[in-house]
Amino acid sequence: MVSSNPLFRGTWTAKKFQATVINDIWPEVLFFSLVATMVVLVSENKYNLGIGNPLLTVLGTVLGLVISFRTSSAYERYQDGRKMWTNIITGSRNLAQMFWVHIPVDRTGKGDAAKSTMIQNIIEKKSMVNLILAFAVSVKHFLRGERGVYYEDLYPLISFLPRYANGAHGPEGDKLPLWHDDDDENYRPVDTPATELGREMSLSRDTTHNGASDPEKALPLPLPRVASDRPLKPARNPPSTSIYDYIPLLRLFKWIARKVSRRARSRQSGQRPRRKRNQDLVESQIPLEIILVLSNYTAVCMSRGLLHPAIATGVTFNLTLLQDTVSNLERICNTPLPFAYQAHLRMSLWLYLLFLPFQIYNQAKWITIPGTAFASFLLLGFLEIGQEIENPFNYDLNDLDLDYFCTVVQRELHLITANTTPDPSEFLFTELNQPFAPVDRRSAKELVESGTEYVAPHAADKTEPGIDSIRRTLVKGWKDVDTLTRR
């Protein structure tokens, strides 16, 4: 998510140039500029290639409206993605507050729940709050098409969950869906080496981030004794930048070379090349599994009388909100603009820009070249922007910063669990509290020690001690604040 100019923020690198769309459109702009140059040179030296321009205004207006619709629809998806992540942050915050504040630590007189100790109850609540953070992290990986749970920022939060349907040592076939690794050969491989559990992971964190912010350091560190059948992958695994990102035209030659080499291998082996499965759709059951665990915990607390019905209703509402949000994010991620619309719009724009120099030469002469270059840059740029922000969940500099959103959730949940939920009487009636300021600047401790009946401090007060005197003080306080703040 670009909140400020990425080109001049921090150390400048060529990769930051990708925040613009210039590296995507410059081959097309160059091509149409060369066409305009050819038209001008031929017209100036041999034959006049200029043609009438009655369709220039009409077609330009239509293309402008269509491109505007394309960009607006893409930006609407971008905004919807941001709103959905606001819902995740809000729902996570509300759930954590309800779990941490409203589920009691002292469960005396709560039946079977009274058998647990205070430390067990605190561990129980804190573990559920950690699962709320795991939900946000799992949604991040789900939107980026990163399958499985074996990531540095996700696995430590859920490693304690049950793995088998029939106990801790069931056969492989009875492993619960959460722990099935969904990675396959069709998915982009990890660019950086996967980190092992335990000491090696801790050392790699300290040496690979070069002192930068590393939210994974604040997560539980899995020890070698934690059961895991594979190493953990990095929390962030953006695709590596190659020459194809700066010269998109080379992707055509790469595709042709890949097709030719595949045909050659198939001829040598005598087998027809198999088509890969279409893996464009992103699917994941991990957020749903985490919601199921949280829902089950809510049901257990209700059955034990640990949650008031009104609070339980709020918990259920926020769990439903998180589920609906994931469904909406999946809709945005898996519903691109139809290819026929994109292809037709791009071909129409190419034809318009191809014939543009012929139509403006008679009026513009040599200005035809820079005019065509500017028109190409303008129209192709807006078209490319719409295509780039259509799916705002990847690693591009213009995409939403999902890692930052997860960090926000992590900070807020730790802030909530840092609250000790004390009895209000422990901090209200102290010398630091002046409840009736600015009219009465006596502390709460002095007011309590002065007697059971409140007496207003102003001499002009003729009100009898008690509640009427308190009301008079509050009204005078409103008048004083209103006067002082309006000067």
Protein model, in words:
It is a single chain. The protein is an all-alpha fold. It folds into two domains: 6-241 and 278-417, no CATH class; 427-484, no CATH class. 56% of the residues lie in helices and 0% in strands. It has 15 helices and no strands. The chain has helices at residues 22-45, 54-102, 118-143, 155-158, 199-208, 243-246, 250-269, 286-303, 309-334, 339-364, 368-388, 402-417, 425-428, 444-449, 467-484. Helix 2 crosses helix 10, helix 2 runs parallel beside helix 11 (368-388) and helix 10 (339-364) runs antiparallel to helix 11. The longest helix is centred in the N-terminal third of the chain and has 49 residues, at 54-102. The model is unreliable at 183-212 and 272-279 (pLDDT under 50).
Write the layout of secondary structure elements.
Elements: H1 22-45, H2 54-102, H3 118-143, H4 155-158, H5 199-208, H6 243-246, H7 250-269, H8 286-303, H9 309-334, H10 339-364, H11 368-388, H12 402-417, H13 425-428, H14 444-449, H15 467-484
Question: Quick one: biggest sheet?
Answer: none
Global structural class:
mainly alpha
β-strand number: 0
Mean residue pLDDT:
80
Morphology: flat
Rg measurement, Å? 32 Å
Distance separating the two termini: 41 Å
Strand content: under 5%
| Poorly predicted spans | 183-212, 272-279
| Amount of helix | 55-70%
Helix segment count?
Answer: 15
How do the helices and strands follow one another from N- to C-terminus?
Answer: HHHHHHHHHHHHHHH
The overall number of domains is 2
Provide the descriptors you would attach to this structure in a database record.
487 residues, cell membrane, YneE/VCCN1/2-like, transmembrane helix
